[in-house]
Amino acid sequence: MTVKTLTINQQLISAREEETILQAAQEAGIHIPTLCHLQGVTDVGACRLCLVEIAGSNKLQPACVTKVAEGMEIQTNSDRLQKYRRMIIEMLFAEGNHICSVCVANGNCELQDLAIEMSMDHVRLEYQFPNRKVDISHDRFGIDHNRCVLCTRCVRVCDEIEGAHTWDMAGRGTNSHVITDLNQPWGTSQTCTSCGKCVNACPTGAIFYQGSSVGEMQRDRTKLDFLITAREKQQWLV
Predict the structure, then answer these.
(1) Distance of alpha carbon 40 from alpha carbon 64, whole angstroms
(2) How confident is the model at residue 238, as a pLDDT?
(3) Both 39 and 96 in a single domain?
(4) Do 90 and 117 share a domain, yes or no?
(5) Which segments constitute the 4Fe-4S ferredoxin-type domain (predicted)?
(6) Residue 27 and residue 142 share a domain
């Protein structure tokens, strides 16, 4: 296995050649913000919060899908990157209907945590106030599209871990949204196994347990970690 040597924030580190910059940074204890990344499922580079600067390139690269290379010199926390990241967070708030004070995930929301990390105390953009639906047709769960950030975590865990592929994406641009079973109500789905993996994967209050009140939505990621580890180590193969 080939080992690559690179520099992240003036820190010399080693990484396996198949690793991404994000994986290498995490193993070295270097924090890179991300919203769409979820350990154990395929990375898609959707949120662009993990953009980094690489010496010799004018383009910012998403750390979650960019492979390490020998001699790379990477910056993860420059003023330029912080400016872009704050703008992305502000756009997510302006393009959705995120009202933290009445959200089931208040205090347990990755988008909220990132806003605090970026010192975002107000939004400089005009709010779009889209007309988005809430689907509570499922017996146990619900989805509030007003709080969805299109990270596609639900799509990926349902496909890659559960193997049901109940969730998918529809629409383009500002009309993009997640759907179940060719845009049918969640409660009528013939593929959903009611496993709850999508609920535990969601970074915001978009997918929730029915009956959750303000600030009560908590997730148990240990269930996903257990399944991912078992799959990677092939512990259930005879």
Answers:
(1) 12
(2) 47
(3) no
(4) yes
(5) 139-170, 183-212
(6) no
- Dist CA 212 CA 135 (whole Å): 15
Query: Residue 228: pLDDT band by 50, 70, 90 thresholds?
Result: confident
Phi, psi (deg, nearest 5) at residue 168: -160, 180
Which has the closest alpha carbon to 144: 217, 49, 221? 217
- Tell me the pLDDT band of 224, cut-offs 50, 70 and 90: confident
**Do 180 and 210 fall into the same domain?**
yes
How many CB atoms neighbour CB 214 within 10 A?
A: 14
pLDDT in tens, 79-125: 999 999 999 999 999 999 999 999 999 999 999 999 999 999 999 99
What would the pLDDT profile of 185-221 be if each residue is shown by its tens digit? 999 999 999 999 999 999 999 999 998 888 887 777 7
Q: What is the average pLDDT across 157-186?
A: 95
Got the DSSP string for 168-226? EEES-GGG-EEEETTT--GGG-SS-----HHHHH-SSSSEEETT--TT-----HHHHHH
Question: Are 89 and 161 contained in the same domain?
Answer: yes
Q: What is the CATH number of the domain that holds 97?
A: 3.30.70.20
User: Among the three residues 76, 91, 119, which one is the final residue of a domain in this structure?
Assistant: 76
- Host H or E run for residue 237: none
The torsion angles phi and psi of 236, rounded to 5 degrees, stand at -105, 10
Contacts of 186 (CB under 8 A, 6+ apart): 135, 137, 138, 141, 142, 143, 180, 192
Contact (Cβ atoms closer than 8 angstroms) between residue 178 and residue 150? yes
Domain count, the chain: 2
Using CA atoms, how far apart are residues 174 and 204, in angstroms rounded to an integer? 19
